[in-house]
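Step 1: inspect the first sequence and its tokens.
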Amino acid sequence: MASKKKVLVVGAGFSGAVIARELAESGKYFVDVIDKRNHIAGNAYDQIHAVSGARYHKYGPHIFHTNDRKIFDYLSKYTEWIPYQHAVQVLVDGVGAVPMPINLDTINKVYGLELNTEAAAKDFLDSIRLDIERPANAQEYLHSVYGERLTELFFSRYTKKMWGLELLQMSVAVVARIPVNLCKDSRYFKDEFQCMPLKGYTALFENMLGHEYIKVNLGVEFNKNTEGEYSHVFNAMPIDSYYDYCFGELPYRSIKFEHRVGEVFDHDVPTVNFSDSGVYTRKTNWDFYPGCGGGSTSLVTYEIPCDYRDNDMERYYPVKTTDGRPQEIYRQYLELAKQERSLTFIGRCGQYIYYDMHQVVANSLKIANEFLHDGTASAGRE
């Protein structure tokens, strides 16, 4: 035991917890995990609402989905699952609630049609979409897929609220991940594995971090002066903050949450998006999510996007713009990170990229395996 090296992991979310567990299980390292928050599980953290008694996700809905059996099997070591097929609707002016992503029923309701086959839906979209061979921004991409009206109804105002930018200013990559659905299937995801942890995400993390070689300390800010105490540091803090913003701040969007106890929720899906120009982007009824809800009365959560500086520096979503400026700033920080021999940046803020849960688990396993193989790990991402 005395020969084991000490490693520091900054951040007790998915990226930090996976790396900590892999290093501890190797038997080669003692791992200290710190987090400035007073809880583990990062943005997947769930808790009991003080008034309603309902279990909810503090930082917004997290639905696990993946086509990667290896990732599903890996997390299954730390939790049992409840099968769950997620569905979302969007409220559209003059139309009402319709499925999102756009599908055959959405098209029929918006245009007053009675299309009943995927071929008919494709033909209709072909008749309204714009012929743009190489879209230069998110608006051109959506126009090339859905045409102008559907783009305006479902994406333009929502994007302005969500990102604080017009579609013309947004990278194609932001919207290219939205599935095009030409059938009546109203599921939000089509992945093979879709489920929720039986006892919640926090319990999953408790199991993952529950190892004799892992020590967790919460409510602890990272201090550079402690780096010398460890053979390596895996750091999920914002990379621009670590380097004292020497190349400028990386932009992020954040979310403020408004919880309403006992509110009537007249929908048959758990999450409803708002496509209007108001401040809210979506609302969620936690009674619909397996492993959540269950309070004495309903709990409905509304989301208000904002700049991270307007929300106690809570960084949720890295920003991608048409000019690529945020990513260029990140690349400057990455060049500094590449010079570090005992420091690896991890996670959404350390690598300045949006990850779904299965993606961050896969990425963190890769980093941990590289480190265990040769004692080094990628400084960030290209």
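Step 2: inspect the second sequence and its tokens, then contrast the two.
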Amino acid sequence: MVKTPLFIAKRYLFAKKSTQAINIIAWVSLLGFAVGVFAMIVVLSTMNGFEKLVFSMYNDFSPDIHISPSQGKVMERDSLLESYLHEENLSFSKTLEENAAFYYADFQHIARVKGVEPIYLQNANLEKHLVDGEMAPLDKNDTTSAIIGLGVDYKLATRVGDPNCLIEVNAPKRGDYALQSLESIKQEILRPVGVFAYDDAINNKYVLVSLAFAQKLFDRPDKFSAYEVYKVKNEENLQLELQHRFGDKYQVKTRYQMHEGLFKMFKTEKWFTFTILVFVLLLVSFNLVGSLSLLVIEKKSDIKTFKSIGMTAKDVRRIFFLEGVFIALIGSISGLCLGLVFCFAQIKYGFIKISGAIVESYPMQVKGVDVLLCLILVITIGILASVYPAIKAGRYHD
């Protein structure tokens, strides 16, 4: 008798009903689950793709560990800290960041000057992100060279590569000066030799120069604002070790902590979208409840027959419960297969394009945990939607 409810449920699933509306509602329910799962897989994979794309850009530009002074804006070289980083075979660069005003022809823009050492350009994979000009050394015989962000290049309308293209950089001098005095402003000249493209927030904000030039511009001789550490295997362990060794002398942040707001924004958007799709599936489940309820009414005579041949109310409930589970299961697996095929086709061929973006097509990344979560959720909704009609069928038996 255990296999009988399963057999009857399968027959009911594919058998033609006397009332055509029941068939239509059942197939609408199945289609609804398929479309819902398909949408979940595609939307979540697309958001994963954008998240991976943006973070890959920040991962290149931002260090694994950022070490800055706990008090004040700048610090001096720490031989003990550098010795420890060398012992751990970590790559690091001293950097100095300050805001400055840039002028070229009739254009002006406020951007952030970032003075870096040569090793930084390798750590940040700058050559991979270079979209114009060349990867010229910033500190070789000429400290006026600069590599500028794509947004800065656009707002200043510079001509990278032209030896006559010189950008004026203005920064406030340190000391007591009258605000309107020309003596309070320090002016330097930069020659843009390359243009990089990471994320828009970086492209519109940063201009890379040599550390020596930044120290000269901001009147910070032999000083810098941070150590930026790369090639870290375990960021959290290194952060704890640095804080243990150097106490409160430094503020040590991981890449996640530096961009915590961005990370949280992506996660919030992803799960907010997921929640909306869950509500859509809940609405679809009402079709399933209606379909099964109509099927129970249609099969009242069958239920009486089942009772006469010795089937219990539990067996009858199991028949209609399995019917609902089958609909949810077939719909979810169909939607899952279609969604995975669509995602992997987009990853390989990129047939859905994006105009005016840093990538040609929509990025996608399929995560196993998302697939598993979608399946579990949809099957759970199908099970819950099948409970009421199954209980109703059991009452007809009684």
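Step 3: confirm your contrast with the notes below.
The chain has a mean pLDDT of 82. The first helix runs from residue 3 to 14.
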